[in-house]
């Protein structure tokens, strides 16, 4: 009997030990799982905090440094201050050169930039080189001031996420409509442009030609005017390749009437006036011609020095863009893209008609 009791006790203790050991093992496993989950949640929270606290670096890349594009830098910096934890990097070539601009973009990619807004100098080259590298690196790209041309957009549909800037065809229409008001009976015209392959400038030229001829063109820059509604272009547009001294020389040849004579001159960019001293010196001998409208002068853009010249009646009209707002909206758009927020794919910035009579008000409107 004693032996039976001893055996029963031994079996009971063995069973109890197994239960206890199993319970201990389960408790340890549960504790380990809780610890692992806690560590994972902590790591995730820390990672999220690091991402949200990161300073985003967005670049605005102009065609070149100058009075017009430097205003986009100010807009870029203003937006960065407003958003906080955002840095504006304004970097471009000293002169207009697609290869130099391409190298600037590659440099920004190597630096790990978070987003790029670029004013396109030459569509095909940039699309096939630095901007393809940006896409491969996962860096969002938008364009400002100058978008890709239509064939490049068709071939590389997902290369740029948005365009911020002037409606360039509408801008050209405004230039042409203003010339019609100043010279209602038609006349002879010379247009000045920058690069002949610049997509935004070709859209402006097409807008001018459409306004004057009343025709619709299939693709920019349209066709040279040949007695269309009383308007004739004396020659194909002057191309100054963004060289200010060349722009002034080309305009001077029109003012002289030698070797080519025309009674109207439109610059689709601000080049001749971007060196104020040089422009004033060139135009001074022709003030009587300007006053008598022997030649009508209409120039794009409306930076403060340009409007000062307009007030001095050294041109008849300036039509201003909003480069400050371009830079500002470019940063807001890039921030939305990176933050997975809804954004507009096309943002047209305002234009403003400036005359000697409203030049002071126009200065405030365009720069605000």
Automatic annotation (TrEMBL):
> What are the transmembrane regions?
none
- Name one cellular component (GO) term: outer membrane-bounded periplasmic space
Q: Which GO terms describe its molecular function?
A: carbohydrate binding
Localized where?
Periplasm
Which residue ranges does the record assign to the Periplasmic binding protein domain?
58-339
Q: Which GO terms describe its biological process?
A: transmembrane transport
- Please give the coiled-coil regions recorded for this protein: none
State where it is primarily located.
periplasm
Q: Which domain of life is it from?
A: Bacteria
| Entry-linked PANTHER family | ABC TRANSPORTER PERIPLASMIC-BINDING PROTEIN YPHF, D-XYLOSE-BINDING PERIPLASMIC PROTEIN
Similarity annotation: Belongs to the bacterial solute-binding protein 2 family.
Please state what the protein is called: Sugar-binding protein, putative
Which organism is this protein's natural source? Shewanella loihica (strain ATCC BAA-1088 / PV-4)
